[in-house]
Design a protein that fits this description.
- Strands 1, 2, 7, 8, 9, 10 and 20 form a seven-stranded mixed β-sheet that branches. Strands 17-16-13-14-15-12-18 form a seven-stranded antiparallel β-sheet.
- Helix 9 crosses helix 12.
- It folds into two domains: 241 residues, 3-Layer(bba) Sandwich (FAD/NAD(P)-binding domain), CATH 3.50.50.60; 136 residues, Translation factors (Elongation Factor Tu (Ef-tu), domain 3, Beta Barrel).
- The protein is of the alpha+beta class.
- A hairpin with a 2-residue loop joins strand 9 and strand 10.
- Keywords: FAD, Flavoprotein.
Length: 391
Amino acid sequence: MEYDLLVIGAGAAGLMTAIVAGGRGRRVLVVDHANRAGKKILMSGGGRCNFTNTATSPANFLSANPHFCKSALARYTPWDFIAMVDRHRIAWHEKSPGQLFCDESSKLIVRMLLDECAAAGVRVETGCAVSHLRAAAGGFACDTPLGHVRAASLVVATGGLSIPSLGASGFGYEVARQFGHAVLPVRAGLVPLTLSGKHQERFEGLSGVALPVEARANGHAFRDAMLFTHRGLSGPAILQISSHWEPGTDLRIDLLPGRDAAEALREGRAERPAAELKTVLSGLLPRRLAERLCEVWLPNRPMRQYRDAELNGIGAQLSDWPVVASGTEGYRTAEVTLGGVDTDEVSSSTMMSRRQQGLYFVGEVLDVTGHLGGYNFQWAWASGHAAGLAV
């Protein structure tokens, strides 16, 4: 079987590449070893797919080369993808500022992409693993359950290592190395943090408690919800900061973001001088957390017994609470993989390898990782669009 383009990976980036290339008259085959296309799309956003973010900018991405993503993002914007969604009459809503979700189901996004592939004459085959991939005269060759495949161009859209239960693997990194590319160290990103030993014991019994916080590490800060779990901390604020945290990194949590904690405590003392600190804190924080703070860390007395200096000290603690995390939940629950194929050896305008003519990398397999909130999908659409125009 001969094609102009072989795309390995039927996820967001691979399908977008195929749609654009097929629309330009290229003969395209998309293969994926998983049993269905777009598995990560299907589970994203709680099954409603946070398919883009209208606030997308290069500042929302982590990479050893922060300039790499600029060209593709500028040439395919969130509004370009929204136009496709609207054309297929898929209803959507803005859940949080900039974050767009399907009203109904993420299945509609996968169906849209597959319909676009069909309209462009693209062949999509799932349950189809690639083996013996190699450079060949006029392009690339490989073996598949379909038979021997030859293609003039090859797009690696295999994603990262996140959520192996959906079929994630390191195959894309292996292909990159095979053709002489450097792969930067990878680790789980947008992932819950774990606590251990006394640090876990102190928060035991708080699983399910959630509150708005500001999480800070390595000069980065994210204000959103935090959730206590049986094993540690999760919630959007923690997932965001996890991409900037590594073992040994100082992690701080502002438990009362946007408020002067000391002033709030002084007001509590003036209004309820006979009430204990844990009672006043329960009006500022979830009750179970307030009680635990006073059991383990903070002296619990009637408010009238605290001097201003003491309340100022307690307020400073609440605004800059140190957390000693032991690790992360790992790739099992991570939404993305940090690191990947070094972008220094890839064209930022076409996604083509600088080492191997006709070889392209798109999406998460590259060292480009977005923040939480639809940014990683927008990178998939934009990088796939860039490659689709170039093959």
